[in-house]
Specification:
This protein is mostly beta strands. It has no helices and 10 strands. The radius of gyration is 13 Å and the shape is globular.
């Protein structure tokens, strides 16, 4: 069964940085366009950004200029480097296939990011 395991979430102060990781198993990772999503309290899940199989990344407006998505196909892992964090970035962060390009995989448990002001 496909498994996505996110890690790296923490409580950080505004202006700080975090690096999230997502290990994917039982998929052909190198052939899967991946993405990061987040869900803030009381809100729906939203796309943060995605990375193609070739390594080209794209970002939502809220993430552009502060977040960087990368991938390591040899490790079946996708990363989300988050800098200049703001309280409004507080959310549970998930990785999954890029829904704009393919169907979604079963969701993992996510990782909590809390940014204090």
């Amino acid at each position: 069964q496909v498994q996505l395991v996110e890690s790296g979430g923490a409580l950080v102060q505004a202006g700080g940085s975090l690096r999230l990781s997502c290990l994917a198993s039982r998929i052909i990772f190198s052939s899967t366009h991946m993405a990061w999503y987040r869900q803030a309290p009381g809100k729906g899940r939203e796309l943060v950004g995605g990375i193609s199989t070739g390594g080209t990344a794209s970002y939502a407006v809220a993430a552009k200029g502060r977040f960087t998505i990368s991938r390591d196909n040899a490790k079946s892992t996708v990363y989300l480097q988050m800098n200049s964090l703001k309280p409004e970035d507080t959310a549970v962060y998930y990785c999954n296939a890029d829904q704009r390009l393919s169907g979604l995989l079963p969701w993992g448990q996510g990782t909590q990011v809390t940014v204090s002001s």
